[in-house]
Write a sequence for this structure.
């Protein structure tokens, strides 16, 4: 039998070691899974985790890495603030969609302007849309104590219905021969989130993600508000005693994560995705939850985790193309990663002892 | 094997946890009908010892003998079927379940609910502990809850009844009733293992006492023939010094509560009802009362965690009812709640971070919202040094400190911020004697410097030692404060609300 | 719009069918929560149950074996959650989310060869005599066995919690794991059993979607039913019969909006299809606004990590 023994202080070493350990375990388990699917496990793992960065076509994939990582990082940074305070925004996907609709909507409303102010206005509208969507669960929680997990999640389904609605009516491309989907922002230069450095895949969303990482780092490490967020997550009573206003914290955390998710949605729709379509969202809002945990809710960790998760997306697509690996297998791999991380997390706070049994 | 008149014999039992030997070759024995005390400070190993007898913990070495045969309970169920029953100090009642359900959960083979309810009524009347089996435990007072525990045990006709600190939740009158019940049981041949650190109780109740210190037996005596001082010094292992009180001249009124009523945030908590008091500069007001009578709520209403109606709380004449904790701190009102881990301090955070928890305002540790961590660490070091907190350094997590050391840190953090009013709840609960003495001294020192102190505590000896005036909380109401000097135990008991209906029940039992 | 195309009899009868998946998942989750564990992975266990049930039913041709396999699949998946939260003491919220993400991926992988196939038909049981009662007989007594099973399950859970000793112990564990531990109950074991029961129920609920309600397999076909089940547990204040009420109310809204869609109302389809989710939010708000009642119903140890330190 094994017994757990609580460490007097959380282990610093394991805090750093658990994420890489979880990645290794995921590779092993993923390899076994791929072998079951009749693929060469070594080759599959290499295709997913190695080739996109170091392989033959890396010059193409490397650019894609930041494109995929940016929204994940942007959303995960916002989520991590709430998660640290024990405020669970699970509906980032919905805020992402609403942000995209608002951002794109403003842009399209002024079509075809050439005024360069349109793009900043779109960013603002995207952030505002996501913020407003997140304020619904936040306000309900503050006013009635409604569970924010369930409300924010329900709003994802509502947002998806809204997306379906606007892409076939309000925002539909008038010149699109009746096909659903908005105008393409590639044909709308003032509002297009174009690459700043194409080879590196850097667009304004990537810049925003880096700024968010720095902002969150300073907030958590040095600012009173960040300190309050951390105390609230660890012991809400101590936080109240320290003068934290829980309602304001809920509004701040949910609002910020909503704004960041909305911004991410707007950058995506005006850039890589190019247009509002019924299914332009690709689950970044959910994957970002994994990214937040994998990065141990730490801004720098999230940066690295976002890149890793982007890698599994890109590598996964490559593996789909070259090895015929099903898309679901990649989704499963991402789920496994989160599981392994949660499992090995026990090592940070507990010592594991073997052999000695205890009447429990 | 011969039974030689003993019921339970513990021989050379040792139990070690990582970093600490909880019990080191402990031996003692209990005879049928004997009331045997286990005496020791917090951390002396009393709880671990009885947990082994009750089957919750297994000894590393040594053995136990029950009625002449080996006794090795693997589970509490096994212990109960042997005839061992235990009344816990904490943690063994379920608030949202009713009395009968709670009793059933502690029995091996309970009869159907309706029958059980009848038996509960029957037994509770026999022993003078009236109880309604259909009431939710969450609605009961602390004393009534203890009756649930006791009746749960009695229904199983135990041969050995273990009582863990049973009087810490009772008024003096309720203690008398409990002792009468225990004497009745002992007369019927039930052995009682009585755990306490309260010497007078043990001297009045117990036939013999085993004294533990740091996991070892340091003596076995007849408590009736030893003085309380002898017992105390055996228990602590050193001569104690009592705090020296320098009576200062009382100054202006620092804090004034006027008919303060606050609803409890906990569904099973006690709301405050029209609490009025005033404390002057240089004065220590002691507030006694049985646990769960509004102590947490009173602290919250003073610290600012709970807001009050306009005009109910005044600090130096200013209405602060609607101000939060930080605004009150800025004005000079500081507090130290009862629960150290998770309320007064965040367990997983370092001592430096815990210093920032309440200290940023008065010690100016933050500038435009940005925390100056270096200055905060200096503050943490200052607390550690001034209050002799035993820790490798301010980087260590709060949870790594022992109860006494963390409490010194918490009290020190507030005291070093130079409060005008300091409110503390259970400042020495679970703290070793020397740390307790230094904490009490610190409270007296700041009063001597001209601060007002409100000390909420369930330890009457402590309150009598440091208070200028004394008041008691009973079901959320505060008795009018009276000068502490000259108060008798009976008077204190009446202030604490007497024994409710229990007295009546015993009168005809 | 042509409201006359909505047949009230069929509407009422289909409410029972539409409600059953959520009912099954919700009653399972209620038991889990009663034991003090919050498993947010209901959606993941449902979808896994849906795919397991579908695949096995197609392969064996027997819906019954399919349902058994679904319950088994859901329970196995829940064990993963149980192991992580009960033995490795991981955060229940995070682990539940992980379970949902994992379940969605796993089910998509298992089901990829089965898209577009029809499930073997589950026959309705016509309860003799009762089914012949005019109107009521048609609405209530002409369904497949699972509908009745789900109602029986509610009754069984109610009786279990109210009258049996095991039920009392389960409630006690959910109320205070420390007290239960001190009395010698095996908190972790009891919670593992509850978690498995919850997993099996969610699996059955999922299979009901893929085998009877739809009946075919598509990715993500439970579309949030698991989350709604979680909301219904809150709505029901952790009481079995109110779970039934909640599930039927929700089923009613779903069926009504589907019927309105079919009848071609002027309300756009998208607004109709978001209505069940909006109504769930509304219900949550109403329930949490009257907080004292909900607070008394919620198990006190819900979501808290238990580690026996002695």
């Amino acid at each position: 039998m094994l017994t757990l023994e609580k460490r007097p202080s959380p282990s610093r070493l394991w805090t750093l070691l658990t994420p890489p350990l979880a990645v290794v375990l995921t590779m092993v388990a993923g390899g076994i899974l791929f072998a079951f699917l009749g693929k060469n496990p070594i080759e599959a793992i290499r295709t997913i985790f190695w080739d996109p960065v170091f392989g033959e076509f890396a010059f193409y994939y490397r650019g894609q890495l930041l494109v995929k990582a940016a929204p994940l990082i942007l959303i995960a940074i916002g989520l991590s603030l709430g998660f640290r305070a024990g405020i669970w925004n699970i509906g980032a996907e919905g805020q992402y969609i609403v942000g995209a609709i608002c951002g794109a909507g403003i842009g399209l409303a002024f079509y075809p302007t050439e005024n360069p102010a349109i793009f900043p206005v779109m960013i603002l509208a995207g952030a505002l849309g996501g913020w407003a969507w997140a304020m619904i669960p936040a306000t309900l929680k503050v006013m009635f104590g409604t569970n924010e997990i369930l409300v924010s999640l329900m709003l994802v389904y509502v947002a998806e219905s809204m997306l379906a609605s606007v892409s076939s009516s309000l925002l539909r491309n008038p010149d699109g021969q009746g096909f659903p989907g908005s105008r393409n922002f590639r044909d709308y230069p003032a509002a297009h989130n174009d690459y700043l450095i194409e080879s590196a895949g850097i667009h304004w969303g990537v810049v925003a993600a880096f700024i968010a990482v720095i902002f969150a780092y300073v907030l958590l490490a040095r600012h009173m508000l960040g300190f309050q967020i951390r105390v609230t997550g660890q012991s809400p009573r101590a936080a109240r005693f320290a003068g934290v206003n829980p309602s304001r914290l809920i509004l701040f955390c949910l609002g910020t994560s909503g704004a960041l998710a909305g911004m991410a949605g707007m950058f995506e729709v005006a850039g890589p995705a190019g247009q509002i379509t019924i299914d332009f969202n690709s689950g970044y809002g959910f994957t970002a939850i994994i990214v937040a945990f994998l990065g141990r809710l730490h801004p720098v960790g999230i940066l690295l985790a976002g890149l890793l998760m982007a890698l599994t997306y890109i590598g996964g697509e490559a593996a789909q193309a070259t090895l015929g690996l099903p898309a679901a297998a990649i989704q499963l791999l991402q789920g496994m990663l989160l599981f392994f991380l949660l499992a090995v997390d026990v090592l940070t706070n507990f010592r594991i002892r073997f052999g000695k049994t205890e009447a429990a | 094997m011969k039974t030689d008149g003993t019921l339970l014999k513990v021989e050379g039992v040792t139990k070690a946890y990582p970093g600490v030997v909880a019990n080191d070759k402990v031996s003692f024995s209990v005879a049928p009908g004997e009331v045997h005390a286990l005496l020791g400070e917090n951390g002396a190993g009393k709880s671990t010892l009885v947990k082994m007898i009750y089957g919750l913990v297994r000894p590393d070495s040594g053995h136990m003998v029950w009625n002449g045969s080996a006794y090795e309970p693997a589970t509490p169920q096994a212990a109960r079927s042997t005839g061992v029953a235990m009344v816990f100090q904490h943690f063994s009642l379920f608030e949202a379940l009713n009395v009968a359900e709670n009793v059933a959960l502690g029995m091996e083979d309970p009869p159907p609910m309706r029958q059980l309810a009848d038996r509960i009524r029957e037994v509770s009347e026999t022993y003078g502990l009236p109880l309604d089996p259909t009431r939710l435990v969450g609605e009961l007072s602390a004393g009534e809850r203890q009756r649930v525990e006791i009746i749960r045990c009695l229904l199983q006709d135990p041969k050995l009844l273990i009582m863990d600190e049973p009087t810490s939740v009772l008024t003096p009158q309720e203690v008398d009733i409990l002792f009468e019940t225990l004497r009745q049981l002992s007369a019927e041949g039930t052995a009682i293992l009585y755990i306490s650190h309260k010497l007078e109780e043990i001297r009045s109740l117990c036939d013999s006492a085993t004294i533990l210190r740091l996991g070892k037996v340091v003596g076995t005596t007849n408590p009736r023939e030893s003085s309380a001082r002898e017992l105390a010094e055996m228990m602590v292992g050193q001569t104690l010094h009592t705090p020296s009180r320098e009576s200062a001249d009382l100054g202006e009124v620092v804090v004034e509560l006027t008919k303060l009523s606050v609803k409890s945030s906990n569904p099973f908590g006690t709301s405050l009802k029209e609490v009025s008091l005033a404390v002057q500069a240089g004065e220590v007001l002691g507030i006694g009362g049985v646990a769960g009578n509004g102590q947490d709520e009173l602290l919250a209403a003073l610290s600012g965690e709970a807001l009050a109606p306009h005009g109910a709380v005044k600090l130096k004449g200013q209405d602060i009812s609607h101000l939060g904790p930080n605004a009150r701190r800025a004005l000079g009102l500081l507090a130290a709640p009862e629960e150290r881990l998770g309320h007064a301090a965040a367990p997983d955070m370092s001592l430096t971070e815990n210093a920032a928890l309440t200290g940023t305002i008065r010690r100016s540790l933050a500038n435009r919202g940005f925390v100056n961590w270096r200055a905060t660490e200096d503050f943490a070091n200052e607390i550690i040094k001034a209050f002799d907190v035993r820790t490798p350094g301010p980087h260590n997590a709060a949870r790594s400190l022992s109860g006494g050391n963390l409490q010194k840190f918490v009290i020190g953090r507030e005291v070093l911020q130079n409060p005008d009013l300091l409110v503390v709840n259970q400042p020495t609960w679970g703290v070793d004697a020397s740390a307790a003495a230094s904490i009490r001294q610190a409270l007296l020192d700041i009063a001597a410097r001209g601060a007002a102190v409100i000390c909420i505590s369930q330890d009457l000896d402590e309150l009598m030692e440091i208070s200028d005036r004394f008041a008691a909380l009973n079901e959320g109401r505060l008795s009018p404060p009276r000068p502490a000097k000259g108060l008798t135990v009976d008077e204190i008991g009446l202030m604490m609300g007497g024994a409710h209906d229990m007295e009546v029940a015993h009168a005809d039992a | 719009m042509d409201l006359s195309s909505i047949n009230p009899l069929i509407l009422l009868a289909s409410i029972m069918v539409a409600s059953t998946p959520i009912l099954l998942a919700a009653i399972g989750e209620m038991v889990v929560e009663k034991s003090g564990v919050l498993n947010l992975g209901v959606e993941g266990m449902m979808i896994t149950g849906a795919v397991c049930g579908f695949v096995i039913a197609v392969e064996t041709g027997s819906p019954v074996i399919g349902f058994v396999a679904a319950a088994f699949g859901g329970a196995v998946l829940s064990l993963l959650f149980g192991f992580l939260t009960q033995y490795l003491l991981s955060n229940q919220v995070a682990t539940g989310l992980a379970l949902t993400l994992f379940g969605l991926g796993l089910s998509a992988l298992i089901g990829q060869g089965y898209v577009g196939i029809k499930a073997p038909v589950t026959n309705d049981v016509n309860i003799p005599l009762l089914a012949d009662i005019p109107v009521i007989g048609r609405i209530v007594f002409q369904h497949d066995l699972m509908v009745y099973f789900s109602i029986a399950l509610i009754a069984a859970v109610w009786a279990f919690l109210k009258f049996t000793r095991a039920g009392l112990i389960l409630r006690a564990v959910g109320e205070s794991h420390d007290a239960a531990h001190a009395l010698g109950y095996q908190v972790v074991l009891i919670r593992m059993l509850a978690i498995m029961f919850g997993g099996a129920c969610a699996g059955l609920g999922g299979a009901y979607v893929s085998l009877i309600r739809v009946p075919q397999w598509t990715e993500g076909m439970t579309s949030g039913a698991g989350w709604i089940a979680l909301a219904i547990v809150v709505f029901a204040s952790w009481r079995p019969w109110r779970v039934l009420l909640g599930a039927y109310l929700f089923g009613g809204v779903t069926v009504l909006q589907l019927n309105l869609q079919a009848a071609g109302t002027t309300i756009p389809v998208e607004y109709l299809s978001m209505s069940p989710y909006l109504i769930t939010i509304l219900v949550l708000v109403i329930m949490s606004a009257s907080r004292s009642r909900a607070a008394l119903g919620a198990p006190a140890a819900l979501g808290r990590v238990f580690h026996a330190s002695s």
